[in-house]
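Ticket #4471: structure output looks truncated?

Reporter: J.K.
Steps to reproduce: submitted the chain below (449 residues) through the standard prediction queue, then opened the result file.
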Amino acid sequence: MPPEQGDAESCSGGFVPPSVLQQALKPGVTRREVWAWAMYDFANSGYTTVVLTTVFSAYFVGVVAEGKTWGTLAFTAALSLSYLLVMLTMPVLGARADARAGKRRLLFTSTVGCVIATALLSFSGPGSIAWGLIILAISNYCYCVGESIVAAFLPEIAQPQALGRVSGWGWSFGYFGGMLTLGSSLGIVSWATAAGYPASEYVGYVMLLTAAVFAVAAVPSFLFLRERTPATHKPVEPVAARLRAAWRDTSQNFPDFRLLLFCGACYYAGISVVITLSAVYATQAMGFTMAQTMLLVFTVNIAAAIGAFLFGYAQDKIGHKVALSITLVGWVVMILIAFLAIQVWVFWIAATLAGLCMGTSQSAGRAMVGAMAPERRLAEFYSLWTFATQLAAVVGPLCYGLVTWSTGGNHRLALLFTGLFFVAGLAVLSRLNFARGAAARDIMVYSSD
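Returned output as attached by the reporter:
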């Protein structure tokens, strides 16, 4: 077996039969390359799992902000600022990457930035609020840029009829990366708490570990992932002009893609709350310890990995729109169960359902963008998707923080409010004609021409 194909056996090729894998990939794409692409999901999942979802979010609210009532709002405001910056810069960064065939360079730069900033979070301690918020915003900005750019490689790798399953492979494999980082972090937390150390003494080591795993696991993506789309050499407009042109273009030539952007903006607002504030909810509303919260998120990641992998196949069979509709209904059910949960075991059921929905909805959205994005404008269209989802990431957690702040810390009411985002996503999705949107992907019209 040639080296470039054999290397993938231990990862995405390891749980996908070689014949199935090759049928899903475009000609010339090796198993080693799709493994390298999936490895980026593996690498960056540790950041979201440990920094945003479990350890640092709860640590900031409880220790850095010293338990102040505005701690959750400050944390969500810092993330919202970073998402706002992504919204304003990503369309231009994506257009520039298409113009210069520079997706891999941008991926490398954003990765280095996120790794360094994550390591710097280790210096956050009680009272270092400004430092923690600034470094958190920088790390999350770099993470979001990388997440957008690596997604733009999907249509270059997968056949159009296999976008769902290939996206699911990467997303499910990514959750194992999150579990690796989280499991290693749990070992540090368990040992430190047993030894009587406070969180301020061991969370720094968790941040350094997370940065190291990200850096090492991302290396294959830079070594083996190829840039296949040729440079467009189109001039890159200023931010405001680029956003106006892209918005006009979606209105005139890609109306269903525009609806997908609205849909994504709605349901990603809810997902952002779950990713960012699940640990805060578990500790504040359910009384979980940090170790219990990490075990909870570990379980959620297992469910998410299973959901993303299996549902990717279902998505290609039943259709992207139907698949996304099912998972959004699942989100609404999860919110209701979690809101009503008084007993811990009921909350565990809700968390497991959240994991299944998280893996499927995120993977489904990425695949739908790939099915609608014009071939020579992949980075730009994925940047528009990033714009929509980051707008959601500003609105969702910020609304949660405002509700908890205005109600004196009522996390249950804030969670119930979050369910409205998924309901709105379903309403918008019902208007989307996916077949028409997929047919429009071959239209190569720029509104500025």
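Triage note (M.O.): checked the attachment and the full token line is present. Residues 75 and 321 are 34 Å apart (CA to CA).
Status: closed, working as intended.
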